[in-house]
Design a protein that fits this description.
The structure holds two protein chains of two kinds.
Chain A: H1 2-6, H2 9-16, E1 33-41, H3 48-56, E2 62-64, E3 77-79, H4 83-89, H5 103-119, E4 130-135, H6 143-149, E5 153-155, E6 158-159, H7 161-167, H8 180-190, E7 197-200, H9 206-219, E8 225-232, H10 237-245, E9 275-283, H11 284-289, E10 296-305, H12 318-330, E11 340-342, H13 349-363, E12 372-373, H14 376-379, H15 386-400, E13 402-403, E14 426-427, E15 432-438, E16 443-450
Parallel strand pairs in A: 4-7, 4-8, 11-12, 11-15
Antiparallel strand pairs in A: 1-9, 1-10, 2-3, 5-6, 8-9, 10-16, 13-14, 15-16
Chain B: E1 5-14, H1 20-28, E2 34-36, E3 49-51, H2 65-68, H3 73-88, E4 101-107, H4 118-123, H5 133-138, H6 148-151, H7 156-165, E5 171-174, H8 178-193, E6 199-205, H9 211-220, E7 249-257, H10 258-264, E8 270-279, H11 290-303, E9 313-315, H12 322-335, E10 344-346, H13 349-352, H14 359-373, E11 375-376, E12 392-393, E13 399-400, E14 405-411, E15 416-424
Parallel strand pairs in B: 4-5, 4-6, 9-10, 9-14, 10-12
Antiparallel strand pairs in B: 1-7, 2-3, 6-7, 8-15, 11-13, 14-15
Helix pairs in contact in B: 3-7, 11-12
The chains are: A alpha/beta, B alpha/beta.
Chain lengths: ~450, ~425
């Protein structure tokens, strides 16, 4: 097991694939990427501070779904963003984009406004050096639209599109609400970002990959500033029944607030939620030149594919190990440099077990000394937004020396035997942390976040 | 030679061919794949044409029926092309760990298949026409295939292909337009240059042509809905051009440092030396502005340490829409002002339709053939070019001419745009190190 303790990618790969292979190493002299602003809106709060404060108290944002009729569904809970928050926070000038905007994009606009204000982005003159990187999947059609649409389906792939459009009962903007790039385009226009702009659709890894790809864009000099994050608002009929069918959701719980219980022996699935999170990434010297306070630093990013099965993660967590070790290597750090891991921790039997195995494989005997907690215990799983929201919460934990808890940890699972920071936040200095995001289908991402130390 | 990122393998499928040589031969002969849509009913006021890929069967690729259930045409095209690129670059025998093979994709829209839900919903309707959830969940939901939600995920095609090829390295899925294909190529290049991957599969996959995608294109105002018999549907840069047409296709490049390819004994002839991105929706909000397109082109030239006069050919976005072509014309006229009379331009969209995320990858593959065979195909064009065009659109018949450096342009309908530069490996870069 000594090779895993080294944390070096070549040692891990040599273990799995003994024999001659080409060494992969990092290149020196990379531009440093710092975080100068952040924003979020989640079931726990209408902004970052509120979410973090409630999470520190171990409050759950999960409750019965009110946004659509769930009678008869085996699953009736979720993490919803309060509608009243949206009405109070949206910029009047942005309403002209409402007709193009999915709910997820509305959440993203609110989070971005907070981040842009935080980072004083309006002060920057060269807008061609500011880009947008967004993890987003767009909207699902609501129930009433599905009911309406099915009247125009003739069977065997044939639709009466002319009839559908002529009735006027189906807004033509619905055709665009699933487009992932509508979000990046609107954000680019609203916030005057004329640089490199891209949309990422890697399922649950999308938000983290959006931040990772933005980090790379700045490193290589393609941009000086990037708005990066993710949004998700698929807590609706079509989104929920999809996961009900694959039996991925928590269906057994005493109360909604107890349903998301990562690493607990009685966990039974994840809880869907919605939200948005965005960070402002900036090249270090660019940030220094405008005297903007630096909140933290992105030290590294790693990604991998399980290449195992569509429906299951690799049982030994190979993909997760590679993503985490990739982030460490990119950050030029060793496993012993990590003080905290913000787990993907979805509360599914499989993910939590596999992630635990992966952490043990990478960190060896030290694994049990590293606090590992899951924000999803309080926020639920916001799919494309999760990686971005959790990156920000990790950053705040570093800034305030607070490790957020994994709530609802009541029954120990002997197979998940790490320190999950059960139920109460912990005051502890954290210099460097990993934040994991593992997507459906087997795409994995890991961000290494650190305190800015000059 | 400087250590550049070279192309060691390709895979290509579209409406007029299932391989690079086949498509090249068809494009060179002036064929196009734009036909009346027959797979479903179109409507009178909409676009009734598309360039569709037919006959791709998962069973022919050795896919099990259970897996094939959640593989739509996206997945089949990507798997086929990735396999071809894998084999032509001899990655199946390469001494690389699977973790050192990266996989970056630009993926077209994966539309929600409501028809998959309809049987269950129809069974659950009560007499008032409302959905009875109790009926739905007591049995009607069994009409839906359980893995249906996974087929809706935008990233599932990449994941399925990664499983089949056992590719485990760095990966990301961009979406949905042409710039996302360019993004996949560039991220792949960066991954190699920064030594996070030894080799990368960089892919672009189009949308599937469906009632939903046609309706979306129509409502966006970019499709040619003309019904004049015999009229060419997509005529890039033509005066009186009336719009574009959807096409299906996929392109995959295997990318590697040339030193690594030399070590493996893999032949190559082209390298990617420059790229540039920008984003600015034009005033009409249906394409990138001319200043954004020009910016992307200039950044690409600067990165490749080239002057505009060094470019022998531009494979344009040229999609036949009024606004996108107008803005691109203005951008080319502007950036290449000092040598505009010598600028040659080709667009593949009259032949292949608009492939969205696949477009830049397919155009790069066509560019490889152009460089290799010193022939520029004719752009499908019957009408005179727009009055504002100051460059030479190659049309009528192929042009026999040595081409060493090609700029490939692409853009989305949301304002993103990108330019890539493809060079003959025998050219000497002005910069000692092209992309490092």
């Amino acid at each position: 097991m000594a090779c895993f303790c080294s944390g070096r990618k070549e040692d891990i790969l040599a273990f799995f694939y003994p024999g001659e292979r080409t060494k992969v190493t990092n290149k020196p002299g990379k531009r440093r990427v710092v975080i100068t602003g952040y924003g979020m809106i989640t079931p726990l709060g209408k902004n970052t501070q509120e979410t973090f404060e409630n999470a520190t108290k171990g409050i759950s944002g999960i409750d019965y779904i009110t946004s659509f009729d769930t009678r008869g569904l085996p699953y009736r809970i979720g993490g919803q963003v309060k509608e009243s928050w949206l009405e109070g926070l949206e910029d009047e000038t942005a309403h002209r984009f409402d007709k193009f905007s999915s709910r997820g994009l509305r959440l993203m606009r609110i989070a971005t406004m907070e981040a842009v204000r935080h980072a004083k982005l309006d002060e920057i003159e060269d807008r061609e050096r500011i880009g947008v990187s967004l993890g987003s999947h767009g909207d699902n059609p609501p129930v009433k639209d599905i009911m309406f649409l099915q009247r125009f389906y003739r069977g065997d792939g044939h639709w009466d599109i002319k009839g559908l459009l002529q009735t006027g009962g189906y807004s033509y903007f619905q055709f665009f609400r699933r487009k992932p790039d509508v979000g990046t385009s609107i954000l680019s226009k609203l916030f005057l970002c004329k640089g490199s702009s891209f949309s990422i659709v890697s399922a649950c890894a999308a938000g983290a990959q959006a931040i990772g790809e933005a980090y790379r864009a700045i490193q290589e000099g393609r941009a000086d500033v990037m708005l990066a994050g993710g949004c998700e608002a698929t807590l609706d009929f079509s989104g929920v029944i999809g996961f009900v069918l694959i039996r991925a959701l928590a269906e057994k719980y005493a109360t909604p607030q107890k349903a998301s219980r990562p690493f607990d022996r009685k966990r039974s699935g994840f809880v869907m939620s919605e939200g948005a999170g965005v960070v402002i990434l900036e090249e270090l010297e660019h940030a220094r030149s405008r005297n903007i306070p630096i909140q933290g630093e992105v030290l590294g990013y790693g990604s991998s594919a399980d290449a195992y099965r569509i429906t299951d993660t690799h049982p030994q967590g190979e993909g997760a190990v590679l993503a985490m070790s990739g982030a460490l290597e990119d950050a030029s750090l060793k496993p012993e440099d990590i003080d905290y891991i913000n787990a993907h921790g979805t509360s599914t039997i499989q993910n939590d077990l596999v992630e635990t195995r992966a952490i043990k494989r990478l960190f060896g005997t030290r694994a049990k000394d590293i606090p590992v907690s899951s924000n999803k215990s309080m926020l639920g799983h916001s799919i494309a937004a999760a990686g971005a929201i959790e990156c920000i919460l990790t950053l705040l934990g570093i800034r305030y020396s607070i490790i957020l808890p994994t709530i609802n940890y009541e029954f120990r699972d002997p197979k998940c035997d790490l320190d999950y920071v059960p139920n109460e936040a912990r005051c502890r200095e954290v210099r460097r942390a990993l934040s994991n995001a593992f997507g459906f289908g087997g795409q994995n991402a890991c961000l290494c976040i650190g305190r800015f130390e000059g | 030679m400087d250590d550049s990122v070279v192309i060691t393998g390709t895979g290509l499928v579209c409406s007029i061919g299932r391989s690079g040589p086949e498509v090249w031969k068809a494009v060179l002969s002036g064929r196009h794949g734009i036909q009346p849509v027959t797979g479903f009913e179109t409507w009178e006021s909409g676009c009734r044409y598309a360039a569709v890929v037919t006959g791709l069967n998962p069973a022919d690729m050795g896919i099990r029926p259970r897996d094939a259930r959640i593989m739509d045409k996206h997945s089949c095209m990507l798997l086929k092309c990735s396999r071809d690129a894998f084999i032509t670059s001899r990655l199946d025998h390469a001494p690389f760990a699977k973790e050192d093979i990266g996989f970056f994709a630009g993926m077209g829209m994966v539309d929600y298949k409501i028809e998959d839900l309809v049987p269950a919903i129809a069974k659950s309707m009560n007499e008032q026409g409302d959905l009875d959830y109790d009926v739905f969940y007591s049995g009607a939901y069994r009409e839906i295939y359980p893995l249906w939600p996974l087929a809706m995920l935008n990233n599932i095609s990449l994941c399925q292909t990664a499983i089949h090829l056992d590719v485990r390295g760095e990966n990301v899925v961009f979406s949905p337009h042409a710039d996302s294909g360019a993004q996949a190529i560039v991220e792949g290049i960066r991954s190699i240059v920064e030594q996070r991957s030894n080799v990368v599969l960089a892919c672009g996959v189009s949308e599937n042509v469906s009632p939903i995608s046609l309706a979306r294109g129509h409502l966006f105002g970019v499709l040619n809905t003309s019904t004049n018999e015999g009229e060419l549907i997509c005529q890039p840069f033509a005066s009186g051009r009336k719009g574009t047409v959807l096409g299906e296709g996929c392109g995959v490049l295997a990318l590697e440092m040339c030193s690594s390819a030399d070590k493996r004994g893999i032949p190559y002839s082209t390298k990617i030396t420059g790229y540039g991105f920008s984003c600015d929706p034009g005033e009409d909000n249906t394409c990138a502005s001319s200043s954004a397109i020009a910016s992307g082109m200039r950044i690409a030239l600067e990165r490749a340490a080239l002057r505009p006069s060094d470019i022998d050919l531009i494979i344009a976005n040229g999609d036949g829409t009024y606004h996108a072509d107008r803005n691109e014309i203005e951008a080319i006229n502007n950036v290449f002002a000092d040598c505009i009379g010598n600028v040659r331009v080709f667009s593949s969209k009259g032949s292949l339709g608009h492939l969205f995320a696949a477009a830049p990858v397919v155009d790069i593959i066509l560019g490889m053939f152009i460089i290799d065979q010193e022939l520029i195909p004719a752009t499908i064009l019957e009408a005179p070019t727009d009055d504002s065009v100051m460059f030479n659109v190659v049309n009528g018949r192929p042009l026999e001419i040595k081409v060493q450096r090609i700029m490939i342009n692409c853009q989305s309908y949301e304002g993103q745009c990108a330019s890539l530069i493809l060079e003959d490996v025998k050219t000497r870069s002005r910069s000692a190190v092209s992309l490092l």
